[in-house]
Amino acid sequence: MTRPVIIVVGAGPGVSGSVARRFAVEGYDVGLLGADKGVLDELGRALEARGATVGQALVDITDEQAARDAVRRMGEHTGRIDVLHFNPSAFREKDPLSLTVAELLEDVALGVGALLSVVQAARPFMGEGARISVTGSMAADDPWEGAASLGVQKAGVRNLVHSIDKTLSPDGIRAVSVTVRGTLASEGAFTPDRVAEAIWSAVTRDVGDWSSEVPYSG
User: Fold this and answer.
1) 162-180 pLDDT per residue, tens
2) Domains located in the chain, CATH noted
3) CA dist., res. 50 & res. 192, Å (int)
4) Separation between Cα atoms, residue 13 and residue 105, nearest integer Å
5) Rounded to whole angstroms, how far apart are CA atoms 159 and 169?
6) Span of the secretion signal (predicted)?
7) SS3 (DSSP) at 45
8) Which residue, 23, 45, 49, 124, shows the most beta carbons closer than 10 Å to its own?
9) 57 pairs with which residues across the strands?
């Protein structure tokens, strides 16, 4: 395979779909991991129309073995993974007095723990210059108490990205969390396409300008 490859984990119609399309127009082939076949099929057709070869895996990424197997199969098929983009998080509308420990751990397994599974599975296929990106959120610093687990997820995944970046940087692989400091909308500075552009810019920076967190404020 000579074309670069991005794998999008938690692929859907929002930011993750925009990220996939943004990389496709730059000549990337795309692997999609998601939980909704209809969404994956629709996104896959849009990517193919942009010239990308597309692979899909219908998978619950909180199923650790299933997530690892899906990434491994994609890596074996393409022979390389140049960018791994991680998007998922759980929105559960419960404040700290109603949120249970089990619910918190379930949400963290999706929004944080699944990143470990896919990074570890992708690593054998990532060479020098490969990148890992995560859709971050201002909820990491200013959580809404009505959805308390979301802030925990976003703070946790950002912290994990810092550790991943430090671990892999000696091999020339870098990781970044793009902190979206605004609310996603259909118009204005926080559309999924604008956020995807910020993620593209963060991933393709010169290594001399690298930092493992990049804020996007519109």
Assistant:
1) 999 999 999 999 999 999 9
2) 5-216 (3.40.50.720)
3) 18
4) 26
5) 16
6) none
7) helix
8) 23
9) 33
* Ranges in the chain, pLDDT < 70: 1
pLDDT given at position 162:
98
Q: Would you state the pLDDT for residue 218?
A: 87
Hey, what amino acid is at 38? Answer: G
d(CA 113, CA 105) in angstroms, rounded, equals 10
CB 179 within 8 A of CB 5: no
Task: State both tokens at 61.
Answer: 């990424």
Both tokens of residue 114? 């699944």
pLDDT of amino acid 1: 53
Q: Which residues of 72-91 are buried (b: 16+ CB within 10 A; e: fewer)?
A: bebbeebeebbbbbbbbbbe
Residue type, 112: V
